[in-house]
Every structure is written in structure tokens, then in C-alpha cells.
Amino acid sequence: MIRVLIVEDSKTSALLLELILESEPDIKVVGVARNGEEGLRKTISLKPDIVTMDVHLPGIDGFQATRLIMEKSPRPIIIVTGDHMHRDEVDLSFRSLNAGALAVLKKPNGPESPDYQSNAEELISIVKLMAEVKVVRRYPKRQTGRTIDIAKKRGDDYKIIAIGASTGGPAAISSILAKIPERIQTPILIVQHISDGFDVGFADWLTSTTHRQVSIAEDRMAILPGMVLIAPKGRHMGLKDETHIKFAMARDYDSNFCPSANYLFEDVGRVYGKNAIGIILTGMGNDGLEGLKILKQDGGFVIAQDQASCIVFGMPKAAIDAGITDQILPLEEIAPVITTLLDKENA
């Protein structure tokens, strides 16, 4: 039985969430909190398996409540926020992810909405998946990957960076982008598994938290120096050639995710070969594995985030177990290694 605490100031929204969650036999709502302080108290006293958290709350907001819960009684937190979000709600949602929340979803509309069933199914699915995440982790001995002399790779002609991520990805991607010096103008293409309606907000949030202008990619868009492009929800992002984006529809590529990291890595490997860097970050499952195999076969350089710094080790672990990684790094070391690989000034 998955025990859920709902933190939501709207009685109507809280009742709807409770109705949806308890429609699933193995989920039980053990409490409802109307503000952030009560959410913190009930998290400590009830010890739920997972918390759903609104961002706009009386007193301390959802971001502050998330941060305090992760400090005092860590457990999986899902941000469940309004359907029509203002910029401050988007910012709070992604700041909450940065503070330790695992996912962000839109609040389901009522049963009269045509989207009700799909929204309800998504909420139940995410709660089940995230309840399995162990947010308090052991820190095993750091893995180092295959031995490779980064100094020998410094200044090689890398022309593109491709990144794939899922659970825990937004904060990890923000950390990496913020630490790559502005003089590094290599284009960066990103696939982040994210709920419907949050891709634009994610791009805006990354722009506000890094020194990069981050945009949602468009089909046939020209790839220019310094660009950071995110695959839009519902489209696979690949490459037409070295200088242009190419999209594919979900039906055109066999994947459980759209966008898919596999699709991006495959195309980047095919087009750029040894001039590509592929990075696989925290996330459930193994999306990205098959694409990285192709990128690696074509001579590209593969970096995986290490277990200790991952929220969920699934995607990096798949690549590591397949023996295709050149470096296995803690999150804080990924940007410095990228800088070393790309920095021709000091080559």
C-alpha cells in the first residue's frame, strides 16, 4: 500500500486528488495539509511514502515546504500545480525540483473534462513510480569508468553536445549549463522527460538560472553556435544534417517516451560521429542506451552521471553496464570535464 500525503490549500482540488488516488486499490491518502507548515508537520508525524505538493500555499510556499521536508524528513515529493500557470508558479515548480522534488504535474481537471481520465491515469502512474524512489541514498565508492586521458582529448573538434535525462534531470541540467563558461559556444541539444505543458516553462527556468538562452527547438531550425535547444513534448528531436534540427512524430519511432533520448543520440552519432559528446543523466528506465551505443560506435565521447549524485540511477546505469561510457562522473564534475574537452584556448 502506497501512503500519500496531499498538501493543497484548495478543498476542491484536495478532494479531487484524493478521489483519483484512492480509486487505485494500492494507494491510500493518509492525510491532507492546507499549508506548507502543516505539510511539514504531517510529513514528519505520518511518514507517508510520498507527498503531493502544490506550489502556491498560505505561509511558506511549496518550494520552501519541499526544501524543509527534504532537510528534516526526506521522501519522494511530486509537485502538482495549476493548469494555467503564471511565471512565478513555473519558477516555484522548478525551484522545488531543484530542492529535491522528483516530478511536476498539472492538477487534473474535474470529471467533466475530456482530459480527466488521461490526467488521472498519469497522476496515479507517477505516484506509483516515484513512491519507489529512495531519496535517502547510500553513497557507494565512486565509479570512474574506463580509463581515459582527458588531456589527450582536450581541444578535439567536438561540435555538438547531446543530453538525455528524466527524473531529477531539470536540476542536474541547470547545474551543468550554469558551470560551462560562456566562451564555450558548442550547441547543446537536450531531451528531458517532462509532463505535458511544462517544456516551455522548463526552457524559461533554465534561461533564468543559467547564463544561457535556452529555447524550445523547432522543426528544421538552424543550429547556431551557443544555442541550447530542448525537445518539445510530443516530438522526437533529431538532426536533418549538421546544421538543422529534424522532428519525428511519436508514431514514427518506437519508444515509450516522446521525446526520446535514444532518437537524439542515434541522430547525433550518425551525423557528427567522433565530433559528438553524449551525456546521460539521472532518470528511470534505460532510454538513451541504444542511441548511445550508436553514438559510441561512431566515435563519440560518452559521459554518464554517477550513482551517488543521481536521484534515480536507471538511465546512467544502463549505459555503464553496457560498457559504452568514457567517463562516469559526479554531477559537479561534468561541466568541468566538458569544458576541458571543448576548451581550445588551453589545449
Automatic annotation (TrEMBL):
Identify the GO cellular component terms for this protein.
cytoplasm
Q: Where in the cell is it found?
A: Cytoplasm
Family stated for the protein in its record: Belongs to the CheB family.
Identify which top EC class this enzyme belongs to: hydrolase
Q: What is this protein called?
A: Protein-glutamate methylesterase/protein-glutamine glutaminase
> Does the UniProt entry include the keyword tRNA processing?
no
Biological function = Involved in chemotaxis. Part of a chemotaxis signal transduction system that modulates chemotaxis in response to various stimuli. Catalyzes the demethylation of specific methylglutamate residues introduced into the chemoreceptors (methyl-accepting chemotaxis proteins or MCP) by CheR. Also mediates the irreversible deamidation of specific glutamine residues to glutamic acid.
Q: Which UniProt keywords apply?
A: Chemotaxis, Cytoplasm, Hydrolase, Phosphoprotein
Listed InterPro entries: CheB-like (IPR008248), CheB_C (IPR035909), CheY-like_superfamily (IPR011006), Sig_transdc_resp-reg_Me-estase (IPR000673), Sig_transdc_resp-reg_receiver (IPR001789)
Recount the PTM note. Answer: Phosphorylated by CheA. Phosphorylation of the N-terminal regulatory domain activates the methylesterase activity.
Q: Which reaction does it catalyse?
A: L-glutaminyl-[protein] + H2O = L-glutamyl-[protein] + NH4(+); [protein]-L-glutamate 5-O-methyl ester + H2O = L-glutamyl-[protein] + methanol + H(+)
Q: Where is the CheB-type methylesterase domain?
A: 154-345
Indicate the residues that form the catalytic site: 166, 193, 287
- What does the UniProt entry state concerning the protein's domains? Contains a C-terminal catalytic domain, and an N-terminal region which modulates catalytic activity.
Under SUPFAM superfamilies, the record lists: CheY-like, Methylesterase CheB, C-terminal domain
Name the CDD domains for this protein. Answer: CheB_Rec (cd16432), REC_CheB-like (cd17541)
